[in-house]
Amino acid sequence: MRKNIVAGNWKMNNDLSQTESLLADLKVQTQTSNAEVMVAPTFTNLYQANEALKASNIEVIAQNMHFAEKGAYTGEISASMLKSIGVNTTILGHSERREYFKENDELLAKKVDAALANDIRVIFCFGEELADRKSGNEENIVEGQIKNALFHLEASAFKDIVLAYEPVWAIGTGETASPEQAQDMHAFIRKTLANTYGVEVANSVSILYGGSVKPANAQEIFSKPDVDGGLIGGASLKAEDFFAIVNAF
Ligand code: 13P
After folding, report:
1. What pTM, to 2 d.p., does this model score?
2. Which residues pair with residue 208 across a beta bridge?
């Protein structure tokens, strides 16, 4: 059966000393849920975070990676570099990467392939903008994003893929998709997977919700049958809030 996952995306927050203090706070939290827990610090703090959380059950993951193995790509980080410091999972396709760094479906397909070829699990993000939802086009947008970046894969690849539905209008805005809106979209995503890969694959893939998840709304969102966890931004920067969300399962 698919896993419950709560992942904290720290984005471009926390220098080394702030990271050390958040890691120390995380280590003293108590987990009462059976969710897999992950945190994604910025690249410069990945090694430190992985060392600090080695004895815990919190996995340290990356926020992004490049598709090439190595070479003249100034400022980029490869899959093998992540592997060499013990990072085995990366977020890809976050809407901030799509918006500010012009990452498109074609590029993301290459990144997904590079990650899987290096045994790196992918948390693949996608989601519609406000205008798409207002015009009732959200399912088309989401379907396109998933199909274009992932549907060239064999069914067996989906054991290493986690999907994260992040409606852009709910990211960092304090506005959350209602639990019903999240459930409807997650059910649509699962149906889209099932249509191409079959029900068994569709039911085995974890689909996370991201967008202003907080301790106050996590339980209701996670109670929906097709919501298998969350990708948490702002609320993951405080250990207490993050674990309140983890324990909402
Ligand atoms: P917020 O939780 O701050 O809305 O961010 C969500 C997100 O982008 C997680 O990747």
Report:
1. 0.98
2. 164
